[in-house]
Specification:
Elements lengths: L3 E4 L14 E4 L2 E7 L15 H18 L7 E8 L5 H15 L7 E6 L9 E8 L3
Parallel strand pairs: 4-5
Antiparallel strand pairs: 1-2, 2-3, 3-6, 4-6
Helix pairs in contact: 1-2
């Protein structure tokens, strides 16, 4: 039976509550929902700027994926949570720029986008991920 391993990195913010940044079991990696938080200061960044928040959030996701032994190209699913429907096109552009830059194999990850409330008022976006490690 494959061991379940907590994925940890100082290149993404530490969890604020009782969960892991990510979990790996066999080839599967689940990244917990990330926000636009600076990993050094744990401060929320880019108030009111959904594009910058999307990029910072994806950088945090990428750091956790890489700490698991995978690469961003191994991501098969991203779930994006937005607070406002009108932010969708702005998020989508920033998301597209980031994902195409780091998806080297040409097959983009699947994605779901949900409109919802988020844990902190300054958060406009939260993103989680699933990756499959092939080693």
């Amino acid at each position: 039976m494959t061991e379940k391993i907590a994925v940890r990195t100082d290149k993404a913010p530490a969890p604020a509550h009782t969960f892991s940044q990510g979990v790996r079991k066999g080839p599967f990696v689940q990244v917990s929902g990330q926000g636009p938080v600076d990993p050094v200061t744990n401060e929320y960044l880019h108030p009111g700027d959904v594009a910058a928040q999307t990029t910072r959030t994806l950088e945090n996701v990428k750091a956790i994926v890489e700490a698991s032994g995978a690469s961003f190209d191994d991501v098969v699913m991203l779930r994006v949570y937005l607070t406002k429907r009108e932010d969708f096109p702005i998020m989508n552009d920033a998301y597209g720029d980031f994902v195409t830059k780091y998806t080297l194999g040409g097959v983009l990850p699947s994605r779901t986008t949900v409109f919802t409330g988020l844990p902190r008022a300054e958060m406009l976006v939260e993103i989680d991920a699933v990756a499959i490690v092939e080693n």
